[in-house]
Amino acid sequence: DGTPHHRMSLRGKTITAVLRVGPGWSEGGRLEASILWAVKRRGLPALPAQPRSTAEQYQLYDRAFHGMVHDAEHGGWYHAVVPGRRRMPDHGGYFADCVSVIWKITGKVPDTPRLQPGGGHIRNHAAFFVTGRAKQWLDFQRNRFRQLFAQQQPDGSFRYDGKYRRGHFENTASGWCARHAYQLLEYAYCTGDEQALAAGLKTLDYMRRFRTPRGAQVWEIPLHTPDILASAHLVRAFTLGYEISGDRAWLEEARYWAWTGVPFVYLSPPTPGPVGLYNTIAVLGATGWRAPVWIGRPVQWCGLVYAHALYRLARHDAAGPWRQIADGIVVGGIQHTWPETDKDRQGLLPDSFLLPTQTRADPGINPATVFVPALEFFRETPVLDYAVFPRAGSTLFAAGEIERAEETDRGLSFSVRSPWNRPVWLFVNGLDPESAPSAKIVPKPAPGAAHFFPNAGLWTLRFQGRAEVELTLPPTKKPSGSAIR
Asked: Which of 363, 355, 307, 346 is nearest to 330 (CA)?
């Protein structure tokens, strides 16, 4: 029942703890039950204060993209930099994540001869829909699916036999499988592809055997080490599984894995300094580094990926504490951001933060990682919104806010609002590739603004401001049930 208190002395300091002891906790008990008990007993702390206004934060990000992370020689942006030493990768790229952020904070789209996925730790695909490259984005998704499908084992698992396998009792782990699972399900979500859906759900089913979040950072962390990035991937994978299948068992799994991320979050001040609450450590255990040692040190980009997954879960589990925890992590990321007084690094997110000295550590990561969950924290219009039409097996993506999305006896009906003073795109996937839908659009679009790609089963619309759309589907695709429910 949480008593008695246990008291011990350590080098002159007294630590008081409450131990919960009961049947089932040593064997077979579910981890999230103990975490839930601890959080309910203590509650969640109030959010830390923002160091600057939303507008000032956006200005800081804008300076960052015009500063050290801008690749003046090759064009595009770097993922991260160490001033005076190196940039990572050695040269940048025309990353969609970066273009999407610049567009959101300035209203202007950088002129890029090409566009490639990536740039941050959280994918932000809006740039493809702002520049009319939705079909190119879909092609990228298809190529990734082919690679993933080739790696999947017959039992649905994914295996790792690299350098950091040593010390683990098997060659797979929850976070390793989850990263592949959410990519498979994201592809199914984007396209309605039944093979991708079946493959993704098979991996989710395999992952029921796991209970500990681990194995998501094997570029430097042993497969056996628990880490918050694994929790993030697991929440995202099971939430996607629920969204596209309607199976509430996957939602329960998403809740479980959301609780497993909480022990990585500082819910009491770790040091006297102003920065610390809602900071997120990367791992609980061994790493591949002698210096720095990650134990106890915040690596906020990992937590921001977790926060991004929590925001998506909160859409389906509003009673949970997910938005509060995610908001706190975002504020921590904003506090970590280098201020304008550091001209080389202003607006960049430090790779880690030293709590005792309240100082930031290189490299500096471009703002794309913190920006996506920050939009949720600021309650801003999303740069890219989505809606699922479960019976038809179709998904709507739009650069703007989807205000309404319904399935009718005839097909699909939705309204989309874009706050930007420029044309943007939306698309509906998962349509019959052999028969184009008929569309009623208000206001009436310009000639050529709506287009159907028959081989892809993709319908796109270029619009500005607001669009009311009714798509009448051919009999084979009218809402009557499909693989994606």
From this structure: 307
Confidence of residue 477 (pLDDT cuts 50, 70, 90): low
Nearest to 22 by CA among 14, 13, 33: 33
Contacts 24+ apart (CB under 8 A), 289-295: 289/220, 292/352, 292/361, 294/221, 294/352
Burial annotation 18-49 (CB, 10 A radius, 16+ → b, else e): eeeeeeeeeeeeebbeebbeebeeeebeebbe
Specify the 3-state DSSP secondary structure of 161. Answer: coil
- Interacting residues of 402 by C-beta distance below 8 A, sequence separation 6+: 385, 386, 387, 396, 414, 415, 416
Residue pair 340/363 in contact by the 8 Å Cβ criterion = no
Q: Count of alpha carbons within 13 Å of 81, Cβ hemisphere only?
A: 21
What is the residue-wise DSSP string for 269-312?
-SSSSSS-TT-BBSBSS--S-SSS--TT-B-HHHHHHHHHHHHH
What distances in angstroms separate CA 300 from CA 174, 278, 351, 437, one per listed residue? 21, 9, 7, 45
pTM of the model: 0.91
Write out the two tokens for 465: 């401001």
Query: Residue 323: pLDDT band by 50, 70, 90 thresholds?
Result: very high
**Which pair of structure tokens corresponds to residue 29?**
């008990």
Interatomic CA distance for residues 272 and 472, integer angstroms:
61
- Residue owning tokens 């919104």: 385
249-258, 277-286, 294-303, 387-396: which has the minimum mean pLDDT? 387-396
Burial of 10 (0-12, 13-18, 19+ CB in 10 A): exposed
Candidates 465, 473, 464; CA nearest to 428 is 473
Cα dihedral 336, 330, 254, 20 sign: positive
CB-CB neighbours of 367 under 10 Å: 30
Contact 180, 148 (CB under 8 A): yes
The rounded distance, in Å, linking the Cα atoms of 365 and 355 is 19
Cβ atoms within 10 Å of 483's Cβ, excluding its own: 17
Question: Whole-number mean pLDDT of the chain?
Answer: 89
What single-letter amino acid sits at 476? T
What distance in Å separates the CA atoms of residue 448 and residue 233, rounded to the nearest whole number?
A: 39
Question: Looking at residues 262-288, what average pLDDT do you find?
Answer: 94
Is residue 78 helix, strand or coil? coil
**3 state SS of 65:** helix
> 165: which DSSP letter?
G
- Other CB atoms within 10 Å distance of the CB of residue 17: 8
